[in-house]
């Protein structure tokens, strides 16, 4: 899984969980913006539109709201002038 070099992806818990689930984490090369332009844009949208705009009442509430945002982002957004649904 390609992940951003931000602090939210730099923890031991993520490393351990990825290892236990046989997931390889792929970090972009530092200083190379072409490696991570898409994930940078996605993370910016996620932070601005969902994480910073919401107050989560519980882990289950966070999962429900984030999943709803992800579904809207992936299925109902216009991409390059074409509706993706």
**Percent helix:** 40-55%
**Order of secondary-structure elements:** HHHEE
| DSSP helical segment count | 3
Shape estimate: globular
Given the helix and strand composition, which structural class is it? mainly alpha
Terminal CA distance reads 25 Å
Number of strands: 2
What strand order characterises the main sheet?
A: 1-2
* Average predicted confidence as pLDDT: 78
Radius of gyration: 15 Å
The biggest beta sheet is recorded as: 2 strands, antiparallel
Strand coverage percent: under 5%
> Uncertain regions: pLDDT < 50 for 5+ in a row?
81-85
Could you characterize what this model shows?
The chain has 85 residues and is mainly alpha-helical. It is built from three helices and two strands. Helix 2 (37-51) packs across helix 3 (59-75). The protein is globular. The relative contact order is 0.10. Mean pLDDT is 78; it is low at 81-85.
Tag the structure with descriptive keywords.
85 residues; mainly alpha; two-stranded antiparallel ribbon; 48% helix
Short overview:
It contains three helices and two strands, in the order H-H-H-E-E. By secondary structure, it is mainly α.
Topology (elements, then pairings):
Blueprint: H1 12-20, H2 37-51, H3 59-75, E1 78-79, E2 82-83
Antiparallel strand pairs: 1-2
Helix pairs in contact: 2-3
